[in-house]
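ok new one. same drill as before - structure tokens go in, u give me an amino acid for every spot. 238 of them this time. try not to just spam alanines like last time pls lmao
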């Protein structure tokens, strides 16, 4: 692994006294694709929400390039270069594709370069470019997911956190999402990919962490996890 740009240590979180994340430590190196995996309710979203400033950890540290950012509000975390695309494609359905991107473009980190950035983004997502004047709610599920990811890119993040981008998509679109993750990574963006789809995730990710009941149950390279007997039996049905 390259030296970590993000290092989280001993993260904990509980919802009204019920622990959701009990002890999570993870690192992401510059230029990596790292997968954060696990079943429903394992604590994946809670973990990345703590990394992105959506939730304040009850305990633990989040070091970003050496600075502890745990507990900073999400907009401050975004200014430092970490963007979260939350689960569920939270786009504004009545607004056009372009307007959805413009909202993100108002962030301080994005504002100055927005017009140039927009053209780059439309270069990556030609279907969104064609549909820029269309209400976002009229896009297909896959296109809405692309828009949610595109919006995350507006602020030029160094680390893009994607929370279950393939959820609810047809197999062909799932493949398109994973291809996109590779493509964005090749463009220099470090990616933390939250997924229940272990098989596809471990094929694109250099390394992965598997969460169970709010703890890291195992971690390793994508190839090693794909070969791991426990992973194969428990998550891959082999
Ligand atoms: P999923 O894939 O279903 O999103 P996850 O691995 O992302 O699962 P979390 O969403 O982090 O898991 O949830 C971890 C635990 O915390 C679960 O038991 C969940 O029910 C609980 N939880 C999550 N959000 C809340 C909330 N807002 N209030 C109460 N409990 C919550």
């Amino acid at each position: 692994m390259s030296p970590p740009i993000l290092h989280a240590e001993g993260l904990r979180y509980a919802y009204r006294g019920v622990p959701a994340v009990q002890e999570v430590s993870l690192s992401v190196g510059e230029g990596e694709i790292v997968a954060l995996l696990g079943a429903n309710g394992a604590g994946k979203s809670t973990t990345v929400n703590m990394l992105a400033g959506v939730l304040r950890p009850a305990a633990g540290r989040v070091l970003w390039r050496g600075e502890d950012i745990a507990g900073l509000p999400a907009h401050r975390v975004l200014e430092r270069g970490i963007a979260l695309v939350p689960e569920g494609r939270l786009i504004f359905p009545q607004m056009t594709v372009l307007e959805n991107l413009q909202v993100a473009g108002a962030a301080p980190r994005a504002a100055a370069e927005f017009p140039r950035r927009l053209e780059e983004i439309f270069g990556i997502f030609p279907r969104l470019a064609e549909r820029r004047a269309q209400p976002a709610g009229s896009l297909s599920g896959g296109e809405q997911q692309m828009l949610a990811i595109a919006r995350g890119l507006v602020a030029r993040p160094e680390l893009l956190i994607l929370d279950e981008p393939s959820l609810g998509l047809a197999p062909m679109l799932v493949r398109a999402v994973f291809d996109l993750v590779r493509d964005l990574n090749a463009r220099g963006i470090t990616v933390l990919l939250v997924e229940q789809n272990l098989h596809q995730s471990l094929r694109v990710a250099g390394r992965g962490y598997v969460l169970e009941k709010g703890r890291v149950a195992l971690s390793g390279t994508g190839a090693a996890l794909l070969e791991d007997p426990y992973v194969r039996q428990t998550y891959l049905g082999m």
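The pocket of adenosine-5'-triphosphate is lined by residues 15, 20, 38, 40-46, 87, 196 (CB under 6 Å). and btw Residues 171-186 form the longest helix (16 residues).
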